[in-house]
Amino acid sequence: MDAYLRPSTSSSDAKPKPAKLRRYVDNYLELGFIQSSDGRPKCVVCLQVLANEAMKPAKLKRHLMTKHPGLKDKTMDFFRLKSEEYMLQKTRLVNLATTSEKAQRASYLVAQRIAKSKKPHSIGQELLLPAAVEMCEAVLGTEAANKLKTVPLSNDTVRRRIEELSADIQSQLLDRLRSCEQFSIQLDESTDISSAAQLIVLVRYPWEGDILEDFLFCKEVPGKTTGEEIFRLLDAFMTEARLSWEKCVAVCTDGAAAMTSRKSGVTARIKSVNPRIMATHCMLQRQALASKDMEPDLHSVLNTAVTAVNFVKSRALQSRLFGQLCRDMDAGHDALLYHCEVRWLSRGKVLQRVFELRREMAEFMTEEKPNIAQFFTDPESMAKLAYLADIFNILNSLNLSIQGGHTSILEVSNKITAFMKKTVLWRRRIQDGITDMFPQLSEFLHTNNLSVATVRKVATSHLTSLSEHFSSYFSDVNTDAWDWVHDPFAPAATANGLTGKAEEQLLELSCDRTLKARFQQVNLANFWPSLSHEYPELTAEAMQILLPFPTTYLCESSFSTLTAMKNKYRARLQEEDDLRVCLSTITPRIGKLCCERQAHPSH
Question: Cα 430 to chain center, whole Å?
Fold first, then answer.
């Protein structure tokens, strides 16, 4: 029997045949040995692995007598139980490792969701995990709830997870920017809750047949927020990220002196590095500036309305009494809105609400502010207020139409041009006694049997002034020069300023019926980037029109996110990583992050 179980080779590393191993396991478990993973005998008591030549019964028995003399009289059932305990221990270790890996991935997913919801990092351990455990225990049982307890969601863990997610997102974005040929940026600076000046920069770039927008960085500006300091911060990031200014085709800023000054502004310094760059002033801000000035009579109406609002809103008691009056009179609203100069839509909303509550305002002001009450009962003043409410509602609609991401200069310019032409039409129509383009004014005049002459002079003068201001602020808007980008297949599309090669490619493109059919099915942001290989010169020229940001809306939206995220309770937050995870459209590679880090259970 010993000869039968002896290994087939004299080498100590040789493995016995499977049939012999099966007989070995069956016959020698009573000596306390099982087969190890590499085929050699393994003691179930001390877990020592012997050489293959030790499979002789005499050698196995000698190990039992010398190493475990107290177990020499134990039965085979004892060693079988030891073997089962060892196998069960291995299973538990495997399950623990698998559970830790799943818990680590869950930790990344929850941290990403916390950042996107702009919540404190401690909410994971204080709210999310206890709530998830209780729900699992109630629905799935205690075993599932215990598995959730291993998910690491402490404050420091969530912070580290967000930092790692942010680093991965930034790495992907910078790789894309280094590989693409062109990109544009928009930037703005503002002060946060901790009085720190924050510079936010966003980028637009072509990628895989589309034009994408993403968060680039948020940095604190040290010292004064001058053009020199802002450019130094921006240039240092470009150098560290290995991004070339030559690839940047446009920069969009607001109208602050630090941004647009001819000599020391950020745009001037960027142009000193890349003279071909296009610098654009935010069209949202230009639209707000163009509509700010108005006739003295209209300005007096606006000031009176704002004074009345401040009188009601400045005291809590006055606000409560006014709200009760509105409810008693069955008004559509029971509160007024504050006027704020820096908010784009504030003026129109305030005037609209005041005009709707004009009767309630007249009743409320009768005792304490009789002069303001007389203003709300004067038909001519109310007609002017109705005109202001209508015209600023239209301006608000224009403002809203050019807000948002993924808007191009072509789209915004078309809407601005259309509005300027409308002002000319409205001026002519109101001179003819037609007011149907201003619904509230038209209804008020009709209800009170008033003539259009009541507001004809002031409205005509204001529309003329509005048209002139828009023409002045948007003098650079020339949509005719960009017709070939908007529709390269139009017969009358002009191509001024193109190189000879690009113009030849435009002619080839205009004759391609296959691409013409495709052009009618997709938007410009999907059409032009897809032609980069077939028509490279022409696509590069089109990208210089489609890539520039027309507004700094994304920066303003990012500052709103920063305000919600970094409040007085989180004034020491290092905001860049949270902002990037919250605002970026790039999906972090959580699987890659999990593979690079060892999984640990919650503690």
Answer: 44
Instruction: Of 503, 471, 499, 497, give the one whose Cα is nearest residue 482.
Output: 497
| pLDDT over 90 (residue 400) | yes
CB 430 within 8 Å of CB 463: yes
Three-state DSSP class for residue 392: helix
Token pair, residue 289, equals: 């500036």
- Give, in order, the Cα–Cα distances in Å from 82 to each of 30, 76, 208, 289, 394: 11, 10, 60, 85, 84
Q: What is the pLDDT of residues 363-378, one digit of tens each?
A: 999 888 889 999 999 9
- Name which of 209, 202, 160 is nearest 180 in CA terms: 209
Q: For 277-320, write each residue's pLDDT tens digit.
A: 999 999 999 999 999 888 899 999 999 999 999 999 988 999 99
What would the two tokens of residue 437 be?
A: 């383009």
In this predicted structure, what is the pLDDT of residue 345?
84
Bridging pattern class, strands 33-35 and 41-43:
antiparallel
Q: Return d(Cα 285, Cα 56) in angstroms, integer.
A: 91
Closest CA to 16 of 3, 29, 316, 469: 3
3-state secondary structure of 210: strand
Q: In what order do the strands lie in the sheet with 183-191?
A: 210-220, 197-207, 183-191, 248-253, 278-281
State residue 93's pLDDT score: 44
pTM: 0.80
User: Taking CA 443 as the corner, what is the angle to CA 352 and CA 462, rounded to the nearest 5 degrees?
Assistant: 60
- From residue 193, alpha-carbon distances to 173, 336, 477 in Å are 29, 27, 37
Angle at 493 between CA 491 and CA 495, to 5 degrees: 135
Please tell me the predicted confidence (pLDDT) of residue 219.
95
Checking if the pLDDT of 78 tops 80, the result is no
